């Protein structure tokens, strides 16, 4: 509306039309670059517009998912052999991840360089080449164009020009690196190495969880009607877990009275939330939760075997939620291990793509424990089903409130730091700090 009024004003002054159009375009660009302002330097306020604005979403695709970040692509265990491939995304850009004939990891945009069609439509498989269904352009496992039908025409007619060069029409390559079998890609060929990007704390916990070869146990997909960043807020907010999730609080998997904490990376966009299992004082928990609807002392499990566990690690951690900005969460909840790939589909919708895994040398009993505990999470999980609903409720609540802000002050204002407890929103502020930096958004500086 503001832009329309300005254009009308210039016309009424008698400016020629071409000048009006030119100025209007300049205003549009300037508006896009500065349309979001974080009103507090410590990110205790987040404008709701970042969750609903289409221009913000388009900017995220360019500056985050196609910018200087490492985005999750998958696990090496999903494509162990030459020719194995899986289709995935970076933001909403379709991507193919495969191993070439020499077994090297390769990734490229899943878009035919001819007319733009998706080349690989399957979720995964094994192939010697990738062939577009539309006009049969064929690419090898390095993404190079190797064949086009009718290149020299047919019956003396048609065909491509003599100077048509197949080497100029390969699939768009993506830089690929792997850490402990977790594969990431980037459109920025000059980005810092993945080791450095992950930083010390994430590498420490990845070293622990991926300390030996893994095997994939299965997948779940969950379509959530909300903005993808609301999910990152959710996994960086440790105190909601003891309030929102009845299963967590009632059966003691996670309570805010337990020992735990959050550590951040050098840019404060990644985080690891952890809690030590079984160390809570039951009487103290009953006092703290006595007025909470999410603590039901009378509830009993018909089949308590879902809580049976065989600890994988010697640090006592029951829940370990590792988030890598801006695309993935890696979880350990008791014995259930999974990656949660966050796949944006627009300002108000995203998909969570869950990949469950165990270890290659697991015995059958341990595999069954992991599979049963997979019921904790996913679209109908005993724990995380509520997270999707919470995201939906926020999206519905803010749809018409783009000039308003969320309030993020649990555990104080000011410094963004590591914490040694579970009642905090500080990690969320770290996420927003990194987000604003990479999106090049303005931040108010305190006077």
User: Helices and strands: which structural class?
Assistant: alpha+beta
Topology, number of strands: 21
How much of the residues is beta strand, in percent? 25-35%
What's the mean pLDDT score? Answer: 89
- In whole angstroms, the N-to-C terminal distance is 32 Å
The residue ranges in which pLDDT falls below 50 over 5 or more consecutive positions are 1-33
Shape: globular
Radius of gyration: 25 Å
Number of helices: 12
Strand order of the biggest β-sheet: 3-12-11-6-5-4-7
Largest sheet: 7 strands, antiparallel
Helix content: 25-40%
Describe the structure.
The protein has 447 residues and is an alpha+beta fold. 28% of the residues lie in helices and 26% in strands. It has twelve helices and 21 strands. The protein has helices spanning 2-12, 17-34, 49-52, 54-65, 194-209, 228-235, 241-244, 246-251, 282-289, 364-373, 385-398, 426-439, and strands spanning 37-38, 45-47, 71-75, 84-90, 93-99, 105-109, 124-126, 130-131, 138-139, 145-147, 173-179, 182-186, 214-224, 260-264, 271-276, 317-324, 328-333, 336-346, 349-359, 405-407, 442-443. Helix 1 (2-12) packs antiparallel against helix 2. The longest helix has 18 residues, at 17-34.
What descriptors fit this protein?
447 residues; alpha+beta; seven-stranded antiparallel β-sheet
